[in-house]
Amino acid sequence: MKIHNIKYLLIAAFTLVFSACDPIVDEQHLENSTDVAGVELTSAQNSAKGNTITLSMNTPGVTGYWDYNLGKALTNEVTIVYPIPGKSTFTFVGTLGGEFFSKTIDVQVDKLDTPLDQDWYDLVSTNTAAGKTWVFDGVAGTGDAYWFMSPPDDPSTAMTAWWNAGDCCPPLDVSGKMHFDLNGAANYNHYQTASATAEKGSFVMDIANKKLFINNSKILGYEAGNAANEYTIITLTEDKLVLYVPRSLKDKTTGWTFVYKPE
Fold it and tell me: What is the annotated signal peptide range for this record (predicted)?
């Protein structure tokens, strides 16, 4: 009898020991505060449907950011001066609490009644719908520095030519051109030669950070560009555009500088 009782005491003791080793898990599951249909997006303009637009996400408990095509705003409300007439679609990307989502809102701009930053006019001209064409500012064999190797990772040294490649070994599209306009969208066309068919794409100009991005096409002088098609704006005036990449596709260890003028 004593042996029988001792056996059960031992079993109980082992059970307590092993159960004490089991981790205590406090499972907390994130839950949605609403659904996508419940997320309210609104826009505000003046009565003329001008190009100063306030985009708002008004639903409590939802957080995220606005993608307004030409940049992003890490806030639920942002006011922008939009440079493109016509209907544009803006996207709010956020979280409902338990899952991520994106939702869009369409805004019609009938009048560019708020002046744009001067950089827009310099890049695409004051006739923003017609746009502007740029070509290389130089001719091969003349000593002109329009497409050259420069120091890496330092935009302040962009105009220091380590090797004036365009003079002896011009790019494949040296006789080509590129065109920017804001006719219903931020449109970009690359032409391999002056008479070639356009390779159509789009562009984003980040004025605050002095960046130019080319989407679904390529920059004039693309052999020395970069895989991200991201360029630092060194100079942008009515008569001159200078772009720089910190690491060129040419050799991946140097920078590269591109110098353009209006056609």
Answer: 1-20
The pLDDT of residue 23 is 52
Separation of alpha carbons 28 and 43, rounded Å:
36
Per-residue model confidence as pLDDT tens digits over 213-232: 999 999 999 999 999 999 99
Cα dihedral 220→223→226→232 (10° resolution): -40
Q: Let me know if 176 is exposed, middle or buried by CB neighbors in 10 A (0-12, 13-18, 19+).
A: buried
Q: Distance (Å, rounded) from C-alpha 210 to C-alpha 214? A: 14
- Dihedral of CA 224/229/230/235: which sign? positive
What distance in Å separates the CA atoms of residue 129 and residue 109, rounded to the nearest whole number? 13
Question: Strand order of the sheet with strand 100-109?
Answer: 72-73, 63-67, 86-95, 100-109
* 175 residue type, one letter: S
Global pTM value: 0.83
The whole-angstrom separation of Cα 249 and Cα 107 is: 39
Please enumerate in sequence order all residues whose Cβ is within 8 A of that of 13, keeping only pairs 6 or more positions apart, or say none.
none
Q: What's the maximum distance between 2 C-alpha atoms anywhere in the chain?
A: 111
Q: Helix or strand or coil: residue 168?
A: helix
| Whether 224 contacts 218, CB under 8 Å | no
Nearest-CA neighbor of 223 among 251, 199, 186? 251
Contacts of 19 (CB under 8 A, 6+ apart): none
